[in-house]
Amino acid sequence: MTAPATLNPVQRRTLLGINAGISLAHVGNYIWFPIFVAALGATSSGFWAGFVMFLTYIGRLLATFFFEGVSTRLGNRTTVVLAVLLEAVALGLMGFVEGVALYSVLAFFIGFGSGISFPGLKNILSSFPEEARPKAFSTFQMACQVGAFGGALIGGVFAHADLRILFSVVFALFLAYCVFGLLLIPAGKAAPDSRAPLFNATVLKGLQVGGGARYFLLSSVFWFLSISFLVGIPLHMQAYVGQWPASVPFWITGLTLLALQLFLFQFMIKRFKPGQVMAVAFGAMAVAYAIFGAGRSAWFVVAGCFVVVLGDILFTPSFDIWVSGRFPSDRLAKAMGAMHFFRSFGNMVGTLAAGALYDLARSADVPGLNWFALAAVALGCAVVSLASVRREAAAEPAPVPEAA
């Protein structure tokens, strides 16, 4: 069933505002991120460029413990808008300061704002009717990818621009994000609740054990694998496919995702359980990384990129649907905060590990060793996902026969 047939006008307007806002955010992020990292790497070092970006994940991780308390006090819309405004101000200031220390402080606040706004948007989508959630989460994921692809294209215009101009443009995009949130996302009817602690260190408690805990851990590994591709493939291109620009893999994955996102996910989620769809996502990543490791020509890169994108297409919206269906409404804020915690943790570890695995493969003179290691991790996650589905099915009570 499609979203227009199941959502009322307010919900459709909400979905439009969320998708427009998150798309603008991704445009802005994919404009500044590669340019700023390259500029800082040239003026300071690659280590310090990576360290500044690492602090954005520290901010996102810490935000996990504040999300529930802030959202219950302010409501979803106000929480999202203020968090995006914090990102906007921090990003705007990035163009007018100098030095690793100040960049690091602002990067932390950029991550903190993102760590509040992103689960806030997911929390709003989880309130949609159950039959409309697959469409809502899938279009949300597609909006992210459209923005990322658009930002990568637009970023070329600012490749040699002054950082003050660059970050002023990004600041304007995030302000537009705030406007969409204010105009299109409803304030909500629930009265603010100040009883929840502002800082909640027990946000990760209360998750169901067994399959529930496993899926959250699997999500963390997924983001570890995903960012390992983002960091590892440019290094791979530089070392083995120097005849092509390092951005080629992202063009391939971006176009493939835009072409297949809605159709493929809708096809899979109607026929299989979310855990099974997650297993297919991990399996695709395992195959893609094995391809990258098996050959170092341009055509191996092309083939791997067509496959690895299936992970992003299938995993994120299926995990969103699993969470929204697993937890009652009074625990969704905590669940969404936990989702972002595991995502941030996986990204943090993956950012640091991807380069180390690449260096290990080079120093050991075993080309592809880093990719084979990642492929093994992805294959193990696929097996665990399938086992979790079987365990959940076995735990479900048997249907009661009807009386004769």
TrEMBL record:
Domain (Major facilitator superfamily (MFS) profile): residue spans on this chain: 1-393
Residues annotated as transmembrane: 21-41, 47-67, 79-97, 103-121, 142-159, 165-185, 215-236, 248-269, 276-292, 298-319, 340-358, 370-389
Recorded topology in the membrane: Multi-pass membrane protein
Subcellular location per the Swiss-Prot or TrEMBL entry: Cell membrane
Principal localisation: membrane
Pfam families, alphabetized: MFS_1 (PF07690)
GO CC terms, sorted: plasma membrane
UniProt feature coiled coil, ranges: none
Keywords linked to the UniProt accession: Cell membrane, Membrane, Transmembrane, Transmembrane helix, Transport
InterPro entries membership: MFS, MFS_dom, MFS_trans_sf, MFS_Transporters
Keyword Cell membrane attached: yes
A molecular function (GO) term: transmembrane transporter activity
The protein's name: MFS-type transporter YttB
Protein species of origin: Actinorhabdospora filicis
